[in-house]
Amino acid sequence: MRRTSVAWLVGAAILAGTASWALLGIADVYVEVSWLTAVILLGLAVALWFAGRGVRRLVEGERTTMTPIGAARVAALAQASAWGGALVTGWFGAQAIVAVVHRHAAFATEHLWESIASGVAAVVLVVVGLVVEHWCSIPPEDDADVRSAASGPEPA
After folding, report:
1. N or C: which terminus of the chain carries fewer CB neighbours within 10 A?
2. pTM of the shown model
3. Do 106 and 23 contact (CB within 8 A), yes or no?
4. What is the predicted pLDDT for the residue at 80?
5. In which residue ranges of the chain is pLDDT below 70?
């Protein structure tokens, strides 16, 4: 599994934000953002962080309840969290722009703060996803041992 590129994540966030802002502008709709969204995103980040710590202990050879299959699942979840967090960061950025553009409306102030809180929580999810993905990588010396073991015994 290749590591996730930060540049691609930033590009995805910008693309999602631009598309969301255009869609919200064309439809001229208000989509409510709840404080609960930020809490849920932070909860996901915390859960991923603790799962990642188990993988880190497994990779370092320390005692843990994490299995290799569980580590692969955590690695996939970390990558998915980074991508999903980047996309919703763009969405909440567009929501914040809508609130600023409509600052004269009654909903704008609370909507702006909820969008900012959710956007920050999404960025936290991206960062945790990238850190846990890094923890899930096999050290180079272990990777060489795995490749030599997979190729079989050396010929005589």
Report:
1. C
2. 0.84
3. no
4. 96
5. 142-156
Q: Report the candidate in 31, 52, 55 with the shortest Cα–Cα distance to residue 131.
A: 52
What is the C-alpha to C-alpha distance for residues 99 and 139, in angstroms, rounded to an integer? Answer: 46
Phi and psi at residue 107, to the nearest 5°: -80, -15
pLDDT at 35: 94
Per-residue pLDDT, 29: 73
Residues whose CB is less than 8 angstroms from the CB of residue 69 and which lie 6 or more positions away in sequence, other chains included: none
Name the residue with tokens 């994490």.
66
pLDDT at residue number 19 = 95
Q: How far apart are CA 128 and CA 21, in angstroms?
A: 26
pLDDT at 12: 96
Q: What is the pLDDT of residue 2?
A: 82
138 in the Ramachandran plot: left (φ > 0), alpha (ψ -120 to 50) or beta?
A: beta
Q: Which amino acid is located at 85 in the chain?
A: G
Residue type, 115: S
Q: Which two tokens stand for residue 20?
A: 């969301």
Residue 91's CB: how many other CB atoms inside 10 A? 23
Q: How many residues does the chain have?
A: 156
Tell me how far CA of residue 26 lies from CA of 22, 29, 146, in angstroms.
6, 8, 54
